Amino acid sequence: MDLTTVAEAPSIDRIAVRNSYNDRLVMLSGGASTARHAFAGLILCVACGSNASGPTGGTGGDAGGGAGRGGGSARGGTSGGMGGMAGGTGGAAGASGGATGAAGGGGGGASGFISTQYPRDVGIASDARVLFASDFENGLTGWTRYTNNTDRIAVVTDATLAHAGSKYLRAQVTRTQLAADQNISANAQYEFATRVPEVYWRFHARFVGQTASPHHWVRVGAGTPGYQSDGLANTVPPGNQGFWFDLDASQTKTLAFYVYWYKMRSGRCNDGSATPGCAGDQGTTYYYGNNFNPAGQTAFAADSWFCLEIRAKANTVGQSNGELTLWKDDALVGEYKPGAPRGRWLRDNFYSWGQYFVDEQAFEGFDFRSDADVLLKRVTLDAYYQVDTLPAAAPEAQVILYDDVVVATSRIGCRVP
Questions:
Q1: ∠ CA(177), CA(183), CA(187), 5° rounding?
Q2: Which residues pair with 249 in a beta bridge?
Q3: Nearest 5°: phi and psi at 94?
Q4: Residue 224: CB atoms within 10 Å
Q5: Cα torsion at 335, 340, 343, 347 (round to 10°)?
Q6: Dist. CA 308–CA 45, nearest whole Å
Q7: CATH node for 59-408
Q8: Among 105, 113, 135, 244, which is least packed, fewest CB within 10 Å?
Q9: pLDDT digits (tens, 9 = 90+) for 110-132
């Protein structure tokens, strides 16, 4: 394979801040004087191998300390990956009211997709609805910032493996690297030229061989022009500054949203509050991402390209009408909006299936922001691994490939051959 030279990304002065509470690595803009101590137990680490915003931290727990996404202790674990929801093994699609659906769900029929107007994505970047497009045929041109280490992030030339064309982006993290640095992010990030209230993000991905799913995967950030803290763990984002979410992959290769916003719930109490003495009190207040795991999923296959499209819609200020939607290969995987799916809030999880599912309510929608100047502003392809959550059976190299990325303000659809 011919490894394309990766030029240095635009210069940015950053400090990595590792949260020792959950071994979380984040990146904050600015020099040492601007690093903010969000909570106790921070270890400063300058130049930790990436120049982009770091990934999210561990997750909170579930009812009675069963098995939260971290599969952890009685209070849910502080550093687990997306290891499956609440130990639930059932998950009939009918329990959620929003499992797999028609290919055009949420965006009209396939004929209305942007991609259908641009076969092979030729000319798609010129569409007025498209904010960004990258097929990596010109390397990392257009990406705002990325990991400056070609062992971790590189554009590779191999027409036999690329989803289309001759090049793709490779993210790679090895056991050897993690032995030296226990938290590694291999990422590429695009900052929107124009912030928007609603965004669609489509990309094609491929997990090579027995690659383990990352501790946290890809991310969408929203905020004011100066907000740079998407990815900051165990911290409730201010409603007038920003919100963000990951799309994570479990080790069984299903997908879930992991969401931070100003009205997020704590994992301390059964009711999502942080009131000492509450029902199910875990004894410690923590605010890790709230978990939304769509029902009725089938695992994605290794060594095979699949297409994902994420939709995020910011709420009208003062209302809970924000939405998140996910499609895989143009089929609806899950949709979270006012009235759907039905399920149950318990601690920091909304259960729409599985062991802790109870049909108590329709999901109320997201109140993501309290200020209209908080708008969607960036996407990050990230492969973030922690040494303590890497499965024992994982291979030496965890390798994830990406191709044919498009960001737009309307439904995109998978690349049309």
A1: 85
A2: 255
A3: -65, -20
A4: 17
A5: 70
A6: 34
A7: 2.60.120.200
A8: 105
A9: 668 999 999 999 999 999 999 99
